Structure formats: structure tokens, C-alpha cells
Model the fold of this input.
Amino acid sequence: MTNSVKQPFLVIYAALLIMSALIFSAAAHADTNQDLPKVRFVTSEGAFELLLRPDVAPKTVENFLNYVEDGFYNDTIFHRVIRGFMVQGGGFTEDMGRKPTKAPIVNEGSQTLPNLRGTIAMARTNNPDSATSQFFINLVDNDFLNAGVRGAGYAVFGKVTDGMGVVDKIASVQTGRKQGMGDVPLSPVVIKRVTKVSTED
Done:
């Protein structure tokens, strides 16, 4: 076979190799996403789903799923809502009673998972390792919350994959002061239940 004949075959062969690699990479990525845990929130404003990232924040995801499996988040509220910033929940009942929690966890804030719109992160005090059950969902890209910007940052451990419009709806409710706390929805936004989504769904 002459060089002039070989060349087209080599080009086709190289193209096939590249296509095979891309298909394999896409399939591997799809399998990875399929293996990641998902949870579904049903709220008084609608439902949304989250994809969690134990590959980046294993202790945070384990902690969150423990609360989910215990039914801890059922009948709690989004108690802090700031339009253009975030919505926070996971710690108070509708009558503003604080729920008892498990021990705090280590902060797994990472530059791998920044605080972008639609991501879920752990709420905490000024102590980086003080997060327990409370979480927040970013309404915009909040770069100043990222690890390394102002210290340890806030640990992102997943993102909203379906129903971000519901989160935006929660963000639009009227807020005020209740029992000494600010930015509380005047009409409670109730988290009716949070459940783990079956991988077969």
C-alpha cells in the first residue's frame, strides 16, 4: 500500500480512536452521576431535587443523609431567606423551635466545589467546624463564601438538578422579624419531607 493510500486510512483510524475515547468518557461520566446519591425535597412551595457529591465532601454528605434518613428535616422550615443571596433551612420547626442536632462535623469546604448558583452548602457559625443540620442553597454565585477566599469557606456538597424554579419561588416570599431573628418568611415555607431518591427512579 502506497503512502498516498495509507494516509486516508490513518486519518480515519485516528478519528475512530478519538470518537471511541469521547464515547467512553461520556459513558463513564454518566455512570458516575448515576452512582451519586440524590434527594428530593417536597416543600409548601413545590418540589426540587439535589445531586450530592460524596466524592468531594464525604463526611458532609454522610451527615446530611443521616439527617434525611432519620426524618429530621420533615416538617422543618426555611427560616432565613435573603433574595439575591441564599435560602437557609434545616434547623427550625414552624413555631420557630430549634431542633436538637447531632455533633458538629469537620468543614470540607473545597475549591473543587465553589458556591455557585443552585449549589447546597452547610450553614455554620464563625467556627469552621460547627456545621450540624442547617444548610443553604445559593441563589447566585457567592464567590466570597468559597474556601480560601475568607478562610475555610462554606462546604458545598451538592447542587439542585431539578426544580430550581421552586427555590427561586421560596426566595421571593416576604420576610420580616420573628422571635428576634431577621429574614424569616412571614408565611412559613415548610419542608414537608426530604427523601433519598432510588437509583432505579
Observations:
- Confidence is low (pLDDT under 50) at residues 20-31.
- The radius of gyration is 22 Å.
